[in-house]
Design a protein that fits this description.
With 91 residues, this protein is mostly beta strands. The protein is built from one helix and seven strands; from the N terminus they run αβββββββ. Helices cover 7% and strands 29% of the residues. It is globular and about 40 Å long. It starts with a helix and ends with a strand. 11% of the residues are buried.
C-alpha cells in the first residue's frame, strides 16, 4: 500500500497513510531495536535510509541493521563486506 501511495500522491491526497515504513524488532526477552528502512520517496533520486519514518543524513557509516523491503533482507553496512551482502533473511 505504501508503494502505491508513494507513486501517485494526487490520487491518494486524502489518504491517512504515506511515507517510509517504520520497523521495530522485538526479541524474546522483550528488548527491542529499531531498524532502518531502505526506502525511496518521490523526492529521492535513489533509495535512502529512513529511521522511524525520517530520512537519515549521510554523515558516515552507522552501526544499525537496515531492512530492504524489496528483497526482504536485512544487513548491517559495518558488519558486512559490502552493502549488498545478505546477512540475515526474513524468509
Amino acid at each position: 500500500m505504501l508503494y502505491k501511495v508513494n507513486e501517485s500522491s494526487y490520487e491518494f491526497k486524502n489518504s491517512s497513510i504515506g511515507g517510509a515504513p517504520q520497523a521495530l524488532k522485538i526479541y524474546e526477552h522483550l528488548s527491542s531495536q529499531k531498524l532502518g528502512v531502505l526506502w525511496m520517496n518521490r523526492m529521492d533520486s535513489e533509495p535512502s535510509i529512513y529511521l522511524s519514518g525520517r530520512r537519515l543524513t549521510n554523515y558516515g557509516p552507522r552501526d544499525m541493521w537496515i531492512l530492504d523491503p524489496e528483497k526482504l533482507i536485512t544487513y548491517n553496512p559495518l558488519k558486512s563486506n559490502s552493502d549488498k551482502e545478505v546477512i540475515n533473511q526474513f524468509i
